Amino acid sequence: MFKMNPGTDGVLKDFLQTTSSRLPFASPIEKRLLGWKKGEFKSEQDEKWSEKAVKSLVKKLRKCNGLEDLEKVITTQDQGSKCVTIPRSLDSRLQVGTKKGLPHVIYCRLWRYPDLGSHHELKSVEHCHFAFHLRREQVCVNPYHYNKVDTPSLPPVMVPKAQTSIIPTTLPEVASLDKLNRCLTNLTNTNLITPPTSGYVTDDSNGNASPQSQTMTDLSSASPALSTSIDLEPVMYSEPTFWCSISYYEMNTRVGENY
Q1: In this structure, are residues 166 and 230 in contact, taking their beta carbons and an 8 Å threshold?
Q2: What's the rounded Cα separation, in Å, for the pair 6 and 249?
Q3: What is the per-residue pLDDT across 88-120, written as a single tens digit (0 to 9) for each?
Q4: What is residue 102's predicted lDDT score, i.e. its pLDDT?
Q5: Are the beta carbons of 81 and 96 closer than 8 angstroms?
Q6: Is the CA virtual torsion 194, 199, 202, 204 positive or negative?
Q7: Are strands 146-148 and 94-96 parallel, antiparallel or unpaired?
Q8: 150: DSSP letter
Q9: Predicted structure pTM score
């Protein structure tokens, strides 16, 4: 058996006394594991979901005699401990109640990083042989085999300020009717069989621009370039908590809740 750190035994006993009435159906090992949860429960629903997550893990670890290893890891907080593994599901996620999540994220958030956002913020230690990214049949859920890293932030996107109008206050000058007629005449008189040279120097053109290039020059000069000054402000990217929701239907009838 393992030894607890001095002073932690009393904290755990206080927690067990206060949660005995709230968790009447939890086993002693489940109550002890919940006692090591990091952070406070955000709501009663969060507390019930955490209890279900612990129950699910305890059930899986009982089959492989891994409960003692898990409790030792959580109480000693030893990064040099061995892997605590559960079988990997088909989609690599763990079903807890009506929610699904990545197993190593669920238990790292429960026992080490309560403010963990996503799996992108986790990096496994080098000696973890069943880290999630290795995609083996077993997944390590040892919360001390994953370290939290800073995710690189994307550069801000420059967008116009809300109070600044991007519609120009003055319209561009419209070409005169005579100039447009001259451009159309040049297009009509152009020999379409001869390929355009676009003003580039070639052996056939001797450096002279073709009628088509001259026409394009007239058209480009007919409308001046539009120049507007737009006041921009940076907008930082923030990843949403949920990017989609999934519903299950049978014969046009929804079954269960959205997750």
Answers
A1: yes
A2: 53
A3: 999 999 999 888 999 999 999 999 999 998 898
A4: 94
A5: no
A6: positive
A7: unpaired
A8: P
A9: 0.53
